[in-house]
Write the structure tokens for this entry.
Amino acid sequence: MQDSSAAALASLRSAYAGRLWSEPVDMAPFLTDWRGKWTGPALAVAQPADTAEVAQLLAWCHAHGVPVVPQGGNTGLSGGSVPEAAGQRLPLLLSLTRMHRVRQVDALNNTLVVEAGATLQQVQDAARAAGRLFPLSLAAEGSCTIGGNLATNAGGVQVPRYGNARELCLGLEVVTPEGEVWNGLRTLRKDNTGYDLRDLYIGSEGTLGVITAAVLKLFPLPAAQVAALVAVPSPGEALQLLALAQQRLGASLTAFELLSDTCLSLVLHHVPGARRPLDQASPWYVLLEVSVTGAEEGAADQAQQALEGLLEAAMEAGWVADAALSATLAQFEALWALRENISEA
């Protein structure tokens, strides 16, 4: 394998002038997963600077029968971004993290065009700078990339209101395995023309092509947000609470997360400053969020009252034993930190 790999690497270097790592010390950060549980081999690690370089790399790999492993932020917990040898052939690991430009923000059309290597946090910040919200949110948002979010059809915590990543994308730019570029960066919402290739590529995890850019949907910023950590006896009561919340809150219900006491205890044990906001432990908890849009006065009170009314009804029904509501931004962030730190804990 060494001789054939050396020949393949020499051929690749002659065909591709972009950034290419082949020394073990340089490749190491890309070949091991976030948890340090899996490590795989690679012919080299390529870091293209633009779509044209991605196309050049994939065309070479297709011509030479070299497998490709696309990689975003390498934040996954299931080893999906770790390369594997295909028989005697080592794969090329294709890291997209250098492709992180925000190409366009259109506040009037509520769209944002961004390259696949931009972090989710960068996308959120670009939207917020334009007075808009990009609602996809997950614990790894500071390092996961939008290309990886789309390739895995990430859900995040605001699925009840905004849906998975597929629902947040209007168009894609993709490089096919043969090295051709498909430009589907459409910003039109009411578009019923032709095959929906976008939905094929979203969730395909790089098996059908490499996403290099995307058109994302933006939304109005919430005027107020309130979170609550709620103690429930079992997932059965959590489902009852969810049904009642959907009935009473409608689109104002932006998040609804079920946590076990095992998960919460891990966070309390391992994360400095974390504390249980309820007096008594419970086998299960629900972390829910209510968001109110619009600029009307009293939005914060409106969100607080809506959540309090929901929880009072749920307590009367016996589905909720106790609850802690956020009254300040610091309390809101502290409640969400309990959920977001579970993976690391």
